[in-house]
Amino acid sequence: MFFRASVLLRCGPQKRGFASAAANFRIPVIDFSKFRTAQSDREKKQTADEIVSAFKNSGFIYVSNHGIPEDTVSHVFKKSAEFFRMPPDVKAKLAWEDPRSNRGYVQIGRERVTQSADAAEILALREKAPDFKESMEIGRDWDSEWKNQWPQESDAPGFKRTMLDFFQTCHDLHVEMMRSVALGLDLSEDFFDRKVDKQCHNLRLLSYPPIKSSLLEMEGQARAGAHSDYGTLTLLFQDSVGGLEVMDPNTGVFVPATPIPGTIVINVGDLLARWSNDVLRSTLHRVVSPAKMISSSETITPARQSVVFFSNPNFDATIECLPNCGTEARYPPVNTEKYIVGRLSATYM
């Protein structure tokens, strides 16, 4: 049933139509146009059930026909690449400063994503094996307290307008996706609407510079270490290089989420998992890189780009077990802002 509409991952040599990985681990490809243009509630529910079923099993899906034009995504990648090509001293003026703000430029080595909540352990990991990437973090631009760190227009022409438009586009898709999740959980379609409408999201532009493979072979080192995301849903736009790996929850084996042109990778975050009482799965994932030979004894990983939209509930929302996701809550209620800021505070130095 999944062969035509999923990426089927198996152990052993790579074959046509398959990626080498753990047996029978599937990240299905969901045609979201069937939800967006459905002619009946039954049609909507059918797609919603497919999405929720995947989120229960792997926590990840590929979404095709999502409504975001390919030209729009390509333009965002172009402007992102132009930003990271700016001189280091220009980018440094936009430095990330505060976990509540979560806005600005993050230089290579400043972040160490991990599942640990222990500050001392994370500090040791960061010093030993920081994530080898740089990023630019962008939030809602109308926030009265926390301001985005925009480069001068002369340094990055069109950058601000491009990212603000894309932020709104991703939010709109997030609202639609959450409506599908609500229907798949047998809630009213608009259940989450007023819980995500304040757009407390984070648009992250990521650049992974080329690096000698030997430098990534140290203990604990990776492009981005194994982690889960913090919010509701993450929308990932990949380039063709690849590198994203998802942990098979049944075996603990990391398997590649091979880029599929025209799709968005979408996964469940921690707060949506908590909301659903772990009915929906927030799955560990990481970023590694393929390598190519540059000499008889050395390989190098190519440059990689990605754009990630971390969707969150409203910061004043209380996340507690949904009424139809079990009689006994696995987690105490938690405030969105407190949870996310706590995770960010431990992740950055």
TrEMBL record:
InterPro entries with a match to the protein in the record: DIOX_N, IPNS-like_FE2OG_OXY, IPNS-like_sf, Oxoglu/Fe-dep_dioxygenase_dom
Q: Which GO terms describe its molecular function?
A: metal ion binding; oxidoreductase activity
**What keywords sit in the KW lines?**
Iron, Metal-binding, Oxidoreductase
Residue ranges occupied by any Fe2OG dioxygenase domain in the UniProt entry: 199-313
Family the entry assigns: Belongs to the iron/ascorbate-dependent oxidoreductase family.
What is the protein name given in its UniProt record? Answer: Fe2OG dioxygenase domain-containing protein
Q: What is the lineage of its organism?
A: Eukaryota, Fungi, Dikarya, Basidiomycota, Agaricomycotina
